[in-house]
Each structure stands twice: as C-alpha cells, then as structure tokens.
C-alpha cells in the first residue's frame, strides 16, 4: 500500500493534485502558504482540501509505523512467514491490522494457554474437525495430574476453541457489523449517587436506552461524562440469540457431540471474549466520532469568534465591571498600549455613581477616548447603563465585549510578560479593550479551549482538539495578515513558517532596531532563513513602508511580475495601486510563466486593487432590552434583542442580557428542516428572539429565532 493511492481512497481529488500537494508538504510548506501561493501546483485546492490530504497522510504514516512494529514483534517470535508479512503489508486500516495480529499477542495467562500446556490442543482440533461422535471417549485419552476427568478435558479444549473463534477475522467482522447496525447504548443510575446534587443535570440518563448509531455526539459525550463522574453505568447490548445463531451457522457443520461442544465454546467466546472486546471497540469508535463532531463545532465557532468584527486602531477606555471589588478602568492608545488604570465604585455596596461618572468623563477627555468597551460579566448591565447616562462632549460608542477567557489570559505567562508591574484585574481590563480593537490579535493569546465556544471541549481527545484549533487559529491569522511592526509574539507565532521561537526573535529584533521598513529587512532577523521567509513573507504586512506591495498579500516572489505590469502600463507603482481602471487594462495571459498562472495573477490584481484590505466586518454597537435584568423578568411571547454566544449541533445559545443564556433549539431556528445550525446563525450575530418557555427553577430559557 502506497501513500497516494491511500489518500485517493478517501478523497475525490485528482492524483496529480494530491501528488503535488504531498510534495509541497514534504518540503515543509504550510497549508496557508500552499493554498494561497501554490494554486497552479495544487489545482487551486483550498485549505480544507489540503487539510484532508494532511489528515490522511498522517493516518497512513501512523498505519505504516504500526505495521513495522507488528512485523518486528512477530518476526522476533519466529512466526513471520513471507505470506503473513504480505498480509500485514496489505492491510489498509488499523482494525484489520490488529485483527491479523491478535493470534500473536496472546497473554501467557489465558485459559486457552493453560489448556495448551495441559496438552489439550489435539483434542480441540478433533472437536473442531466435527467428525467424531465418541467425544467423551476421546477426552479420556487426555487425562493427567492437571486434567483429572473428561469434563476438565472438554472444558480446556473449549477454551482453546473459544480463543480460535475470537481470533477469526470473519467472525469478528460479522459481529462488528451487527453491533454497528443494531447495538443499543444502555445506561443505569448508580443507586448510591441518584440523589447527589451534581448528578441531577444527568438525570435524563439515569435509565436510558437508544440505538448507538442514532445517538448524537453531544448526548453521547454527556453520557460518557456522567459515567466518568460515577453517576451512571454504561453498557452495549444487542440481541444475543441472533448474534450466537449467526456465529453457529458460520462455524458448526455437523449435528453430533462435537457440535454440542462447539456450541458451548461459541457461547463462551461470545460472552467472555468477543462481546466485551468489540463493545469497547465500538464505544471507542463512537467516542472518536463524537469527538470529531464536537471539535468541528468548536472549530467553526472559534473561526467565527476570531474573525469577529474589529473596531480598529482607536483610543479605547475599557471597563472590567464588578460590584464589591469595583470596576477596573483602563485607557488604551491606538496601538493598544496601556496609558492609565484605576478603580471606580459606582455599584453597591459603595454606590459612588457620581464619582464614577466624573472620573470616566475626565478620562475620556484626557486621553481623547473614541470608544468604550465594557466586559459582559458581573455588573455589566449596570455599568453600561451608568456609562450611557454620561453627557460626553462628543459622541462615544459604547460596546459590550465578551469576557470569555479573559481571566485565563490575565493570569497567564503571556500577560505577566506584557504587564509585569500590574495585577490580574488590570490585565483583564486591557484584554477587554484590546478585544474590541482586534479580537483576533487578542484572542490568540488565550488557550483556545478556554474561550468557551464549544461543547464538551474538556471531554474530547485533547491532542486532536489542540491540533484542530491550532489549525483554525493559523488559518484565521494568515487569512487576515499580520502587521509585523505591532504584532505580539503569540500572534506572530501563528504566521505561516514562523512559530514561537522565530516570533520572539522578530520582536527582539524590532525592539533593538526599530520598526521594519521593508519585507526584505525581515531576512535580517536571526535564524529566519530562506524557507521561513518564503512561507511567511506574504502574510506579514508593513504599513507605510518603502514599497506599497509590502502592505499587501502579493508575495515578494511575484514582485518582478508586478514591476513588468507597471512598466507595461507606463505608470508608477504608487499610481497603479488602487487604480481599478488601470488594472482592468492588464492582459493577464501575457504574464503567465511555467510556475505562475491565471489563479495567482488574479490574486495579484485583486490585491493591487485593495492592498492590505481587512475583509472582516466592522464592529457594531448593540443594546439589550433595558427592562430585562434577571430570569424572573421574562415571560412567554416576549421579543428580545440578543447576541449568539455559542453554537452546538443541537442549536445555539443567546445572550439576552441576563446571567442565563437562552437556548434556540435546532427545531426553533426555522420553519423548515435545519441540517446545519451554522447555516442560520453565526457566533456573535445580533438577533431578535422570541421567548417560548422559562423554567426559573432549573434556570432554563427556551427561545425561537424571530425572522
């Protein structure tokens, strides 16, 4: 089995495009670089398609690595034949490979191994031949000090037969098929835990049963969490009689005393070996599928959050609200640098609202503030109402900003390095303000799973989760581009080809030598070689630099083509940039080369038309219903403004300005069937919702999307 055919089995891509993409990956090219700057090589594959190639390439490499380990182990046992080696080599998935290896990894303590040591394997072979009707007489020939009677001999022989049955690939696949099609996931409450307060959120699963194939990912993960926390027990059930009959039809070929022994061995193999093993395998597979589905939801949400609307380079006053401890206020300049911080106490118990109003008003004037950001946590609504009472000398936009993960950032190593002389409250307020200016630049500093836009993110495979979320962050950062003269180390580390160490080197060089004046100067950064420059240069932007192209997604390797275009048009580069009519006159076909074709040339023209354009929407002001302060203020039929703050497979959650978020179940998103929640709402989208039901005791709010 070779890599390219393996990838082609799972994708509908062309062989040539896969070969070229794999070749680029083997040269340490990144997904963003390949999708953006090697379109001619890949046949214009996008990041998702290249990501699929990467996934199956890694799967193939893991399979080949496991094959090598198994072949070596079997060879060391002295059991490897050319035929067996070929079978191992020809396996195309881990399940069939492990099935093939099963007879060679027996524990020495099995019942079958004990029976073999007692000399009962010949008897087992006689029984399996199914020709002899004098089985009791045959068993008497195998008595010894360890096998005291015929029943012991037959039992030992059955243990050996059970093991043979367990190792048969056809039997395992037959039972796998039945489990995949008909298995039920069944739960029972642990009686001693039934009244536990923490168990109540899982009470739907105290006595639950449904076909595993129809159990949605979020419910499966909830069940697995409940079992992990000790509130329920989970098992897999199928029709035992049906499974046993299918096995008997495949194995038993006679109607004599041997058949009776084999029937008993089949029942033993099924109950003791096959069903436990394959049930665990099925649960593991279901867990992997549920993990994948949950991670996909998280990844979609994270992408929407990272690409959220930035306010841009503005002077921002940010407030991290609170009651007893007060509201932490910080003033930031256009670059997000901290200029001032202090604490105000407008809410109970101090209630110094007049002092707070005076202080905010004077800070707005003193630091020429253009916008105010208020965290959406405790006392957010009260703080927003206070700020909106202030008669500023000029219009000031007020935004409520998500605090999700801000506390994680404020206590992190990154925050301590950024603000070594300030405590966590100041750092948290700064993070809130910076999120308004540029969500992407600020959120990359936080461990993505701490941002709180997923479902069961702590229950899924953490390695897979981190890999997927890192890919999302990398994709978002590179799709927007990064200003190399203002970017933090965490932001730079996600740029194609850079990584944490080079990001530190870039910032150190910038601090020692001042702002970069050109992309060419990037090559002077220590340890940033030709490969790293090739992979990163197109994603690094230099504002107001020597060359206008340095503030665009045009890669330096294409600068010569742009020079030719400019020369042929007879106008300076500065006059052609942004000049749509001049750009439309360019005949792209005359600039095609062996390596650069129409797709890349179209990208170049698009960049020349609007260089450095940030394709994200701009931030919009939003106001909750001021009459809704807590869940008891809600009643059926109300129409309320809200912001989507989490998306799951079963619907989305909406912040309506109180502590509890409301759920729009997937069935209440539209009058028609909804296949994908993301087709109807997006994270941080401003929506109008209708209140359907309010359960004050359980703090649950059911909403519908109002069209």
TrEMBL record:
<dbReference type="InterPro" id="IPR055179">
    <property type="entry name" value="Tex-like_central_region"/>
</dbReference>
<dbReference type="InterPro" id="IPR003029">
    <property type="entry name" value="S1_domain"/>
</dbReference>
<dbReference type="Pfam" id="PF22706">
    <property type="entry name" value="Tex_central_region"/>
</dbReference>
<dbReference type="Pfam" id="PF12836">
    <property type="entry name" value="HHH_3"/>
</dbReference>
<dbReference type="Pfam" id="PF16921">
    <property type="entry name" value="Tex_YqgF"/>
</dbReference>
<dbReference type="InterPro" id="IPR010994">
    <property type="entry name" value="RuvA_2-like"/>
</dbReference>
<dbReference type="Pfam" id="PF00575">
    <property type="entry name" value="S1"/>
</dbReference>
<dbReference type="InterPro" id="IPR018974">
    <property type="entry name" value="Tex-like_N"/>
</dbReference>
<feature type="domain" description="S1 motif">
    <location>
        <begin position="637"/>
        <end position="706"/>
    </location>
</feature>
<dbReference type="InterPro" id="IPR006641">
    <property type="entry name" value="YqgF/RNaseH-like_dom"/>
</dbReference>
<dbReference type="InterPro" id="IPR041692">
    <property type="entry name" value="HHH_9"/>
</dbReference>
<dbReference type="Pfam" id="PF09371">
    <property type="entry name" value="Tex_N"/>
</dbReference>
<dbReference type="InterPro" id="IPR012337">
    <property type="entry name" value="RNaseH-like_sf"/>
</dbReference>
<dbReference type="Pfam" id="PF17674">
    <property type="entry name" value="HHH_9"/>
</dbReference>
<dbReference type="InterPro" id="IPR050437">
    <property type="entry name" value="Ribos_protein_bS1-like"/>
</dbReference>
<dbReference type="InterPro" id="IPR032639">
    <property type="entry name" value="Tex_YqgF"/>
</dbReference>
<protein>
    <submittedName>
        <fullName>Tex family protein</fullName>
    </submittedName>
</protein>
<dbReference type="InterPro" id="IPR012340">
    <property type="entry name" value="NA-bd_OB-fold"/>
</dbReference>
<dbReference type="InterPro" id="IPR023323">
    <property type="entry name" value="Tex-like_dom_sf"/>
</dbReference>
<dbReference type="InterPro" id="IPR037027">
    <property type="entry name" value="YqgF/RNaseH-like_dom_sf"/>
</dbReference>
<dbReference type="InterPro" id="IPR023319">
    <property type="entry name" value="Tex-like_HTH_dom_sf"/>
</dbReference>
């Amino acid at each position: 089995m070779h890599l390219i055919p393996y990838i082609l089995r799972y994708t509908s891509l062309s062989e040539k495009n896969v070969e070229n993409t794999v070749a680029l990956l083997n040269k340490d090219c990144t997904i963003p670089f390949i999708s953006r700057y090697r379109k001619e090589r890949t046949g214009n594959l996008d990041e998702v398609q290249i990501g699929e190639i990467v996934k199956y390439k890694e799967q193939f490499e893991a399979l080949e690595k496991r094959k090598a380990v198994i072949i070596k182990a079997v060879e060391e046992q002295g059991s490897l034949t050319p035929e067996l080696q070929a079978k191992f080599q020809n396996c195309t998935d881990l399940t069939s490979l492990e099935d093939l290896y099963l007879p060679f990894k027996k524990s020495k303590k099995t019942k079958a191994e004990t029976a073999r040591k007692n000399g009962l394997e010949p008897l087992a072979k006689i029984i399996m031949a199914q020709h002899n009707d004098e089985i009791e007489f045959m068993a008497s020939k195998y008595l010894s000090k360890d096998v005291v009677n015929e029943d012991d001999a037959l039992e030992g022989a059955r243990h050996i037969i059970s093991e043979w049955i367990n190792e048969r690939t056809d039997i395992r696949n037959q039972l796998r098929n039945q489990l995949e099609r008909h298995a039920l996931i069944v739960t029972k409450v642990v009686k001693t835990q039934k009244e536990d307060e923490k168990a109540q959120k899982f009470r739907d699963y105290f006595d639950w049963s449904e076909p595993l194939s129809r159990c949605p990912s979020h419910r499966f993960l909830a069940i697995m969490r409940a079992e992990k926390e000790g509130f329920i027990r989970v098992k897999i059930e199928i029709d035992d009689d049906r499974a046993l009959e299918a096995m008997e039809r495949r194995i038993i070929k006679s109607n004599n005393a041997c058949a009776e022994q084999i029937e008993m061995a089949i029942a033993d193999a099924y109950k003791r070996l096959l069903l436990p093993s394959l049930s665990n395998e099925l649960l593991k597979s279901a867990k992997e599928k549920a993990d994948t589905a949950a991670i996909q939801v998280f990844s979609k949400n994270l992408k929407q959050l990272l690409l959220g609307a930035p306010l841009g380079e503005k002077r921002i006053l940010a407030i991290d609200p609170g009651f007893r401890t007060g509201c932490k206020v910080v003033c930031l300049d256009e670059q997000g640098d901290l200029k001032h911080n202090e604490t105000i106490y407008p809410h109970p118990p101090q209630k110094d609202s007049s002092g707070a109003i005076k202080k905010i008003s004077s800070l707005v004037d003193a630091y020429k503030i253009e916008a105010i950001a208020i965290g959406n946590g405790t006392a957010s609504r009260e703080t927003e109402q206070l700020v909106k009472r202030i008669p500023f000398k000029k219009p000031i936009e007020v935004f409520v900003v998500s605090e999700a993960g801000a506390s994680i950032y404020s206590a992190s190593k990154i925050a301590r390095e950024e603000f070594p002389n300030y405590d966590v409250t100041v750092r948290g307020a700064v993070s809130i303000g910076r999120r308004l200016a540029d969500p992407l630049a600020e959120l990359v500093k936080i461990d993505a799973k701490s941002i709180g836009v997923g479902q069961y993110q702590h229950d899924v495979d953490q390695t897979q989760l981190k890999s997927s979320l890192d890919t999302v962050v990398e994709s978002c950062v590179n799709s927007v581009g990064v200003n190399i003269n203002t970017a933090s180390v965490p932001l730079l580390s996600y740029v194609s080809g850079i990584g944490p160490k080079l990001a530190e080197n870039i910032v150190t060089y910038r601090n020692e030598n001042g702002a970069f004046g050109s992309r060419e100067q990037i090559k002077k950064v220590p340890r940033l070689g030709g490969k790293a420059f090739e992979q990163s240069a197109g994603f690094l932007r230099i504002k107001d630099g020597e060359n206008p192209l340095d503030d665009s997604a045009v890669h330096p390797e294409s600068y010569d083509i742009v020079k030719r275009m400019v020369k042929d048009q007879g106008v300076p580069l500065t006059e052609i940039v942004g000049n749509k009519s001049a750009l439309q006159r360019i005949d792209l076909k005359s600039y095609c080369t062996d390596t650069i074709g129409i797709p890349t040339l179209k990208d170049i023209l698009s960049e020349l038309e609007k260089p450095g354009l940030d394709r994200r929407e701009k931030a919009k002001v939003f106001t909750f219903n001021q009459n809704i302060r807590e869940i008891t203020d809600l009643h059926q039929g109300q129409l309320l403004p809200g912001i989507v703050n989490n998306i799951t497979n079963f619907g989305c959650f909406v912040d309506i300005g109180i502590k509890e978020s409301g759920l729009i179940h997937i069935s209440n998103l539209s009058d028609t069937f909804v296949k994908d929640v993301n087709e109807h709402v997006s994270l941080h989208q401003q929506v109008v919702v209708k209140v359907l039901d309010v359960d004050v005791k359980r703090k649950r709010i059911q909403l519908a999307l109002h069209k």
